């Protein structure tokens, strides 16, 4: 026996060590997805996809036959459900010493609301360099998904992540990962980096100590030699790019895939993934980028994909995406074929997809192409070869075909003037789709771009009706009020498609919403019977003698008929035109000077003005109002935010014509010849952008002579602008409309920024509050009181006293970038002010304040001040769990406020642990965790408490003490 026992002991220690390795080497990555599977109840299939490290053996992966999901309403303080989920078979080895395990349950949610589904499991794999505290094998792995349960969302499902999160990265080479997220409902997806977490209370997560991978080791360089190395995620494409690793080892990062519908966030998935960095003995392969494409439904896509490797390594080219999976889209499915798979140096693939009407959707389809290299014949040290990858994404947008054959004819209708529209039967008869009829006054061409569906609001078209997609006609009688006689109308059609599940009784009828390209225009090109304002231009700038000229075009009518124009004026660009400034009689004789009016004695220096023209015609021998025009304002020029040695100009006009997609003209007074303005710039205005120009003194328009100047303090500069616009209507002449603003003279006397204020934040007296642990019981809203002063000078330099407002910035955590929460106008004395930040869920947070002068220049931030909650948690030293309803439970006094998490352990007098919990309120009833009643006596406890703080990972407060258990 003496010879056998040592051997058995040695053998036992080996087994113990192997068991420890199996326990410690565990989860690399994972995420939770969900999809609704019932038409009648909120029942979802919930799936965890987890990736296990088997570097030191498959023990942990094989042993994880089940997991537990924690499911709770985010907006409720109730106890969440904990549901066991079995592992699905098989659980394959996907390479890089990693298995992919999946666990699935079906779960019916009790009610509508926002739910968190989370998973936690002890023991990440060891040696992760960028998270802590070490050793990382002692950290648990935690991921969560937020799911909105709402009947209006129909058969909604989360995105699925089709690309596994395990690839090798090489020191000094660019690394890219894309989750290849696909949402079968066609919802919009966005991506953002997130901090890996460990589990907290009631299914919530707590951030780990974390740094971005590019901050481990020396600053490093990108693959092309730029410094430092970078780590980022594209919020639109989901490309996670590390350019480039410096130190080999394990790294864990996390990101969130957000799911948006109609501008509303309806869910988010956290993926926690691992990047394995090696000293590779080869260069990564390269795959050629592919431009995004837009195609009409029914188009056959035939796309060549090429990948190369400069080392001549063997290449494997693969592709993933929702377009290949019948469970995610309607057939026909796409295919990807690689004829020379495994070739050395270069490989080509062919992506083929016959699109159909069932593939129309609002968001694009993303198809991921991935190339991986492998050691070819004759490669030295093949055992040291590390496989590297590159990838690219093809974005395909499938839009609906345009409606064809649109026509309109006059129709008899009791309402008056009406038109019957007809068109060809639509090509894509999708259940729930609608044909939308648009109309505008006048006829004009609009540019067509197959990647832009529908109609831009700036085109002037407005919706007048919609019919089911199987209809081929529509009666336009202006909703029963009749259309205007003699007015030219333009019509277009757009087909809109429903999202899947919007009719829950017809699931899967469409892949994901979207719309068609607008149809060709059909124009009822009738003579204009109403005048149209074409000009409101400032001729003279003065506080009392200002002049504006208003012009309009004559309507088409029979000469000799008495008619009348009545011109009304309003103050400001939005003011109601209520002042009658002119009544002009006309007999509509061609050439008569009745289409303009010069409005005098205005304050064009201080005000903009707008105008409306009422038109009267002869009916039954009487002048009767026929109609009125849209209002049109003068151009208003304003000074923008101050810039050092530069002057910012902004201008605007509210007019019925378009000043967009034109080139506006900027003029500056020549100081050598007062009153003479020289054109200094032509500003190209695209889309609906702000009309603005920054003058640095350079004359950028040489045709009328170059007159440069220097922008200096305490000097005046005078400007005016000329807008260039058009109705884009062939019936309205002139086709191009020119209108001047008023003259604006600007002093550059204060282009410097004001000084930063000095901020203070009312502190909490924690010593006083600890004597009153019930101080915040029942409180759900808290207020921080801020006060600051504005200095008269800084470093001996006088501060600008012309402060007009202060901006307050707030961040929940000290490592966040503060965001603007309020702008405070200064009191009569601008040297001090206060602000109460109300409606907070706790006092924790950080603030700074800036000062803004009258020119809009903003100071540097003040000092940043952070505030924390008081760590209030008081425990009794006796409880009597005898079920008499009095003091039966060991719990903190009153209500513990601002507690983020608690880890409580109780020990008997011999040091054996008898009870533990993570319940914030402890709620110990005097039994063990197995329900065994404990004897009366003295017990010792240790409580590790994290409070809500301005720091993401707040320092723990450890309470140690004793409690007398009496029965």
From TrEMBL:
InterPro entries membership: Ig-like_fold (IPR013783), T9SS_type_B (IPR026341)
Name of protein: Gliding motility-associated C-terminal domain-containing protein
Origin species: Dyadobacter sandarakinus
């Amino acid at each position: 026996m003496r010879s056998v026992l040592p051997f058995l002991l040695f053998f036992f220690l080996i087994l113990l060590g192997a068991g420890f390795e199996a326990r410690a080497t565990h989860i690399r990555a994972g995420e939770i997805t969900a999809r609704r599977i019932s038409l009648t109840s909120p029942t979802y299939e919930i799936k965890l996809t987890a990736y296990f490290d088997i570097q030191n053996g498959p023990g942990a992966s094989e042993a994880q036959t089940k997991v537990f999901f924690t499911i709770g309403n985010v907006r409720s303080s109730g106890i969440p459900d904990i549901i066991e989920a079995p592992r699905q078979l098989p659980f394959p080895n996907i390479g890089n010493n990693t298995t992919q395990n999946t666990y699935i349950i079906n779960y019916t949610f009790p009610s509508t609301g926002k739910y968190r589904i989370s998973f936690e499991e002890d023991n990440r794999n060891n040696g992760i360099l960028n998270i802590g505290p070490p050793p990382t094998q002692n950290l648990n792995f935690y991921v969560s998904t937020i799911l909105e349960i709402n009947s209006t969302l129909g058969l909604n499902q989360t995105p699925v992540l089709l690309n596994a999160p395990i690839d090798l990265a090489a020191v000094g080479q660019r690394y890219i990962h894309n989750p290849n997220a696909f949402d079968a409902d066609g919802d919009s997806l966005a991506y953002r980096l997130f901090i890996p977490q460990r589990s907290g209370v009631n299914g919530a997560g707590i951030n780990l100590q974390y740094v971005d991978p590019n901050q481990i080791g020396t600053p490093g360089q990108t693959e092309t030699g730029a410094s430092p190395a970078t780590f980022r995620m594209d919020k639109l494409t989901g490309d996670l790019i590390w350019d480039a690793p410096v130190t080999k080892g394990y790294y864990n990062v996390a990101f969130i895939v957000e799911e948006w519908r109609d501008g509303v966030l309806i869910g988010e998935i956290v993926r926690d993934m691992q990047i394995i960095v090696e000293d590779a003995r080869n260069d990564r392969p390269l795959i050629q980028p592919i431009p995004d494409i837009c195609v009409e439904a029914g188009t056959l896509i035939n796309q060549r994909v090429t990948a190369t490797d400069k080392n001549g390594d063997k290449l494997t080219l693969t592709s993933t995406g929702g377009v290949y999976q019948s469970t995610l889209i309607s057939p026909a499915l796409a295919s990807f074929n690689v004829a020379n798979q495994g070739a050395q140096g270069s490989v080509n693939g062919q992506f083929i997809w016959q699109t159909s009407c069932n593939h129309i959707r609002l968001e694009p389809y993303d198809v991921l192409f991935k190339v991986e290299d492998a050691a070819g014949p004759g490669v030295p040290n093949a055992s040291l070869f590390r496989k590297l990858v590159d990838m690219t994404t093809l974005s395909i947008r499938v839009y609906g075909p345009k409606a064809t054959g649109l026509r309109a004819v006059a129709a008899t209708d009791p309402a008056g003037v009406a038109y019957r529209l007809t068109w060809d039967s639509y090509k894509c008869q999708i259940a729930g789709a609608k044909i939308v009829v648009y109309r505008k006054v006048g006829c004009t061409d609009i540019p067509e771009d197959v990647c832009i569906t529908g109609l831009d609001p700036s085109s002037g078209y407005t919706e007048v009706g919609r019919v089911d997609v199987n209809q081929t006609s529509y009666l336009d009688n202006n909703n029963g009020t009749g259309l205007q006689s003699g007015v030219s109308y333009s019509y277009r059609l757009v087909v809109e498609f429903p999202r899947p599940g919007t009719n829950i009784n017809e699931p899967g009828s469409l892949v994901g919403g979207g719309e068609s390209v607008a149809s060709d225009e059909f124009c009822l090109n009738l003579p204009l019977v109403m005048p149209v304002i074409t000009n409101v231009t400032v001729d003279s700038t003065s506080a009392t003698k200002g002049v504006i000229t208003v012009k309009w075009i004559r309507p088409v009518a029979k000469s000799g008929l008495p008619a009348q124009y009545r011109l009304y004026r309003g103050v400001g660009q939005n003011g109601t035109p209520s002042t009658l400034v002119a009544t002009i009689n006309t007999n509509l004789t061609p050439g008569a000077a009745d289409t303009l009016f010069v409005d005098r004695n205005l304050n064009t220096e201080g005000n903009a003005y707008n105008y409306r023209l009422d038109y009267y015609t002869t009916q039954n021998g009487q002048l009767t109002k026929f109609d009125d025009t849209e209002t049109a304002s003068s151009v208003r020029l304003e000074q923008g935010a101050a810039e050092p040695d530069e002057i910012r100009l902004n201008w605007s006009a509210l007019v019925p014509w378009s000043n967009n997609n034109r080139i506006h003209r900027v003029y500056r007074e020549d100081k050598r010849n007062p009153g003479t303005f020289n054109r200094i710039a032509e500003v190209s205005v695209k889309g609906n952008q702000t009309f603005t120009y920054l003058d640095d003194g350079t004359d950028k328009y040489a045709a009328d002579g170059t007159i440069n100047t220097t922008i200096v303090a305490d000097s005046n500069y005078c400007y005016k602008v000329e807008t260039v616009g058009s109705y884009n209507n062939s019936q309205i002449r002139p086709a191009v409309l020119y209108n001047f603003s008023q003259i604006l003279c600007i002093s550059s006397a204060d282009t410097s920024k004001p000084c930063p204020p000095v901020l203070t934040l009312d502190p909490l007296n924690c010593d006083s509050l600890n004597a009153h642990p019930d101080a915040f019981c029942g409180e759900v809203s808290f207020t921080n009181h801020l006060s600051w002063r504005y200095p008269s000078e800084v470093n001996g330099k006088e501060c600008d006293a012309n402060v007009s407002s202060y901006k307050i910035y707030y961040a929940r955590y000290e490592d966040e970038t503060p965001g603007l929460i309020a702008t405070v106008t200064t009191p009569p004395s601008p040297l001090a002010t206060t602000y109460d930040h109300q409606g907070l869920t706790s006092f924790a947070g950080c603030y700074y304040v800036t000062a803004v002068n009258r020119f809009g220049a903003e100071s540097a931030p003040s000092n940043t001040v952070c505030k924390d909650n008081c760590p209030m948690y008081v425990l009794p030293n006796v409880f009597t769990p005898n079920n008499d309803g009095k003091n039966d439970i060991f719990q903190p006094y009153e209500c513990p406020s601002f507690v983020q998490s608690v880890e409580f352990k109780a020990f008997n007098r011999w040091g054996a642990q008898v009870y533990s919990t993570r319940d914030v309120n402890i709620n110990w009833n005097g039994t063990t965790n197995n329900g065994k009643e404990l004897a009366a006596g003295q017990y010792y406890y240790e409580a590790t408490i994290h409070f809500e703080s301005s720091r993401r990972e707040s320092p723990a407060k450890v309470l140690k003490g004793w409690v007398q258990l009496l029965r």
